[in-house]
Amino acid sequence: MTYILAALAVIPAIIVMLYIRGIDKIEKEPWKLLFSILLLGALSVIPIMIAELIVDIPISIFPEGSLIHGFLQAFVCAAFVEESFKMMVLWLRTWKHKEFNYVFDGVVYAVFASMGFALVENILYVFQMGITTGILRAVTSIPGHMIFGVFMGMYYGLAKREALLRNESGRKRYMILTWLVPVMLHGIYDFCLMVNSWVMLLIGIVYYIVLVIYAFRKLSRIRKEDAPLPQETPVPPYPPYPGYPQNPVYPQNPAYPQNPTYPQNPGYPQNPVYPQNPAYPQNPTYPQNPAYPQNPVYPQNPVTPQSPVYPQNPVTPQSPAYPQNPPVPPAQDPADPADPR
């Protein structure tokens, strides 16, 4: 089931992109550039969703299903926001690109930018609402975004042509149509679907059929009348300030005769060849200095006799050992009978 829903969401956009690139017979655009536009268109879903949430706040005060609510939802919340961001992707990525050299290239670029957004939007709707929604969107919304891209790219290519021709008014006019026509076509389509009325629904179906037929006829005509864009013309010079005469054109200097051809300097004789300096004799060979005798060998200093060996000091005999004083007998007590005194 998931694969069926994915196929319903993706295959219609792939068929549209292959068809638009296939009918570009003169010079097909490189896949690398187209994939980058497709990717930027897919990424534009993020700012578009944010902007729609902001714009939807004041619109929600009106009763849902009423004409004013449906009008604002269709023309402001859906058409204005979505087509503005798709045009921004288109201009930022391709305006100055070197491959943008045919008017029909603008149609191819615009359809790929629209398919990038429609592819992501279709995946979200199909996986939320099922197979029936996928089938209905495959034959309504996807071709519808292609048609809005065709008109955007047609005027975008013409704006590029006028810019290269330095036609500023033409460039501005076609750039306004590049944004305004897809917004109006997209707004009418959504308005017929958002109003709860069978009459508006029938009007929307008729409008869609007429729009598809007219868009394919316009697409075939653009492809047949496609022509290369002109080369960028240089900026014209500024006109002179009014009231002042231009600088007068002075006559050129008269053609004075060229400098007369003076005779060449007479051939003076070359400098005389003076004789070379006479070969003076080399310096005479003087005899070498006579061999003077070497310094005479003087006798060595006489050997001075050593100092005589004097006898050592005589050994002084030691002092004789004098007898010690005799011991003094101790004094005897007179009362002692043994005392001889």
**Poorly predicted ranges:** none
Along the chain, the helix and strand elements come as: HHHHHHHHH
Strand residues, percent? under 5%
State the end-to-end CA separation.
Answer: 170 Å
Q: What is the molecular shape?
A: flat
Count every beta strand, where a strand is a DSSP E run of 2 or more residues: 0
Amount of helix: 55-70%
Class by SSE composition = mainly alpha
Radius of gyration: 62 Å
Look at the structure and give the mean pLDDT. Answer: 82
The description of the largest β-sheet is: none
Helical run tally: 9
Key phrases:
mainly alpha; flat; 341 residues
Summarize this entry quickly:
The chain is mainly alpha-helical and 341 residues long. It has 9 helices and no strands.
